[in-house]
Amino acid sequence: MKNLHNLSGEFSLLHEYVNELRNVDFQSNRLNFRRNLERIGEIAALEISKTLPTEAVEIKTPLGVKAAKQLAQQPVVMTILRAGIPLFQGVLNYFDKADSGFVGAYRHHTDATEFTIKQNYFTSPNIAGRPLIVTDPMLATGASLVSALEEMMALGTPSVVHVVCAIAAQQGIDFFQQHFPDAVLWCADIDSSLNEKGYIIPGLGDAGDLSFGAKLQS
Question: Whole-prediction pTM value?
Answer without folding.
Answer: 0.91
